[in-house]
Design brief:
With 219 residues, this protein is of the alpha+beta class. 42% of the residues lie in helices and 20% in strands. It has an eight-stranded mixed beta sheet, with helices on both faces. 29% of the residues are buried.
Length: 219
């Protein structure tokens, strides 16, 4: 009888472990656990995306509910994709849209070139000047699509290219760039306001904004 009960209990224990492991693999459960710990500590972290690119659908959802948006990007490719198209078409009227991209016209030894050098060490297809060219293309695109919108401010900065910030009045998506990976492959943190991490995201943006210059569309 004891052996039978031991066998039953062992089976139940094994089933519970398997179930627990299965739940831990669930992204929704992981996000819930992260959010609970974050709420207890006041950090404000609610989600962690394995890669920056995997957050784009949720970025689009947040934009639809935002009053304003602040964007600090290292290249700006995401701003030309579907998630942001409602901004440029006027479907999402906002109080203000502030955008910061690296200065593609800066001197040859700029922080933009330092980031380009870092990327070229792990991406053999990343030739000198490619990042500068991509940033300039995105600056030109944004300058043109925003010409008819008075609520859009586009500026460029020459500061360390270390993170991406997409912040609204309710939350922020924050990515810290690695020196050994593209930004799109770096983890993305989702922080809600109020909270420490949300405040850090806004501070990163405001620091760069204070040391930036206005970008004008070419005639």
């Amino acid at each position: 009888m004891a052996a039978f009960l031991f066998g039953v209990l062992s089976s139940l224990a094994a089933s519970a472990i398997v179930l627990a492991l299965g739940l831990l693999r669930s992204s929704r459960l992981r996000w819930w656990m992260v959010a609970t710990c974050s709420w207890c500590t006041g950090v404000g972290l609610f989600r962690v995306y394995r890669s920056q690119s995997s957050a784009e659908q949720d970025i689009a959802k947040d934009l639809a509910q935002a009053r304003w948006i602040k964007i600090l990007a290292g290249r700006g490719n995401v701003l030309t994709r579907e998630a942001f198209s409602p901004l440029w078409s006027g479907e999402l009227p906002m109080e203000s849209i502030q955008i910061l991209l690296p200065d593609a016209s800066s001197r040859a030894d700029s922080w933009l070139d330092q980031r380009s050098h870092d990327v070229s060490r792990f991406d053999p297809g990343f030739s000198p000047g490619l990042l500068r060219s991509q940033v300039q293309t995105n600056l030109t695109y944004l300058a043109h699509v925003s010409r008819s919108q008075r609520n859009v401010e586009l500026r460029s900065f020459n500061l360390p290219n270390t993170c991406r910030v997409i912040a609204t009045d309710k939350a922020a998506f924050l990515t810290f760039y690695s020196r050994s990976a593209h930004g799109r492959n770096s983890p993305c943190l989702y922080a809600r306001a109020p909270g420490l991490l949300y405040n850090i995201a806004l501070q990163q943006f405001e620091s760069a904004w204070m040391n930036s210059s206005t970008v004008h569309a070419a005639s």
